[in-house]
Structure formats: structure tokens, C-alpha cells
Amino acid sequence: MSSGHEAAFWADEEMRHLAPGRTHVVRDSKTPSGPVPISGLRGPIISDALFRTFKSHGLDVRFVYTIDDYDPMDSQSMKERAGMAEHMGKPLCAIPSPDPSVGTDFADYHATRFVALFAGLGITPEFHRMRDLYRAGELDKQIDLVLRNAETIREVHKRIANVDHPKGWLPVAVICENCGRIGTTLATDYDGKTVAYECKRDYVDWAEGCGHKGRISPFKGNAKLLWNEQWCADWDHFDVTYEEGGKDLLTAGGSRERSNEIYREVFKKEPPPGLQHEFFTFGGKKMSTSQGVGASAVEIVGIYPPEITRGGHAPAPSCG
Length: 320
Ligand SMILES: [Zn+2]
What we know:
Bound molecules: zinc ion
Largest sheet: 3 strands, parallel
Order of helices and strands: HEHEHHEHHHEEEEEHEHHEEEHH
Mean pLDDT: 85
Low-confidence stretches: 279-293, 312-320
């Protein structure tokens, strides 16, 4: 990170995106699919610095952090670990915990370890788990909207990213009632209440479905939206007004641009602005624990005091 003076400058600069006279919501998120590399802390640190800066300028602002624990286990590095092959494609929150004394399930274990670092750094956003939002039906309105506009969304994916989904494709993943996998199902034919789905053996190369076919309501936690559409649903649900993101998500045709366009065309809202941050690099390579480059966030925070890990420039937490 750059010097304290410059850091204050970029955070202050971002104020120009925010209209006065309303509540602002800064959002960040993490998929708890394994140990978090140090680069994983950069997003929360930047979002927190922005949150504090906006607040110090007198804005009414919330900092929302979602734990994307309904995502499927799709990590190649995890597939090779003992006992993990049978869990590939299941929601992260449906996989056993490596250590039940730390977390109740795989997602809770990794989220708990990562979130614990936040407290040590003085970062205390509102945490929301996607499993809770889905199961409580908090995103049902957004799921219905997305499914009714699936054809428009299919065209956006084709136009922006040249990704061709099959005709009749729905941007939702059902949890298979037979094998419990969420990453292997293809949903079609939304009738306003239910969708048809097939748990396909060869749908993805990181997990094998069981072949089950059925019909089920996509609401109340039976399904999750796919990545781009879930992003839009979160923006809409929390009324997000600012979200920064890594550069790989922000490139032309990238994930952010797809979500932005879907948000405009389907949700009829302007997507939140966001800063682009550079990745932590190590010897010119992007840091990632899966590539064996760099230290994990847990290791770094254990070694350095908070003011060093944060760059020593963010405004101090207010007392009381
Ligand atoms: Zn299945």
C-alpha cells in the first residue's frame, strides 16, 4: 500500500461518487473455500478505510460483508486432499469442518478464521452469511426477478463476455435432492413457482453429478443464484452504493461488467461505483496460496501488528 498521505487522498477522492442525503452502503464479500492468502485482506482493508473516510465526512454509512458460503466447492487444490473428493460440488456450508472446535462446517471454519483477523485489525463490518439470506427467503424476490428475465441475462452474458449458455438455461443452481450437490445441476423451465433441474454427471469438470432429475421451488434455500446474478441480488437487497473490487473482476468483459449490465437491464438500477485495487504481487506473480506463492493472511497477521498490516494510515477507530 502507498503512504498514509496518498491513502487518505484516494479515499477522500471516492467521496465524489456518493450523493448526500441518503444512507450509503459499502459492501465486500468472501467465499470461504480454503485458507485465505494475504491478498485476501486487501479488499476488507480498503473497504474499511473507505467506510471510515465516508463516515468521517459525516455520511450515514453501513459496511456490509457477505460470507458466500452457499457457493459450491470447486477448488482443484481441495479435490486432491484426502476425503475431499466426495464433497466436490456441494455447498461450502454442507461440507464437514476440518476442526469442529473452530467452526461448525467447512465454510464456517474458514470464515471464522478469516473474520477473526478483522477484529485484530479493528475492522468490524456487519457480517451476513449467504446461507442465512437464502434459507430465510430474503433473496426470493431477486431470484424470481432473475428467473423471469433469464433470456435477457443470457443475452448479456453473450454480448459482454461471449459466454454462450444453452437456450432455456436459468442462472440458478439447485441443490440436488438426491446427492446434495449444488455445482452440478442445470435448471430450466421456470413456471413462476418451480424449476426443472438435472444433476448432470459431466456439467463441470471439478465435480460429478448423480444423474437425478426433478422439479423444485428455487426459493427458501433450495437454490442459489449464479455468481453474477447473486452479486446483483446482494446490491439490490442491501441497497449497496459503493463496492470496490480486484482488477481481474473489473476488466472489460469481466465479471463486474456483466453484473453491472444485468443490474441496469433487469434490476433497472445503476450499479455501485468502485475503486480498482492492484493485487499484492510477489516476485511479479499474483499472490495466491493455491499456487504456493506468498503467505496466508493468518500467517501475516500473526506476525505483524495491525498498524503495519493496515499500512498505518486509516483513521483510528472512534472511542465509545
Ligand atoms: Zn445429484
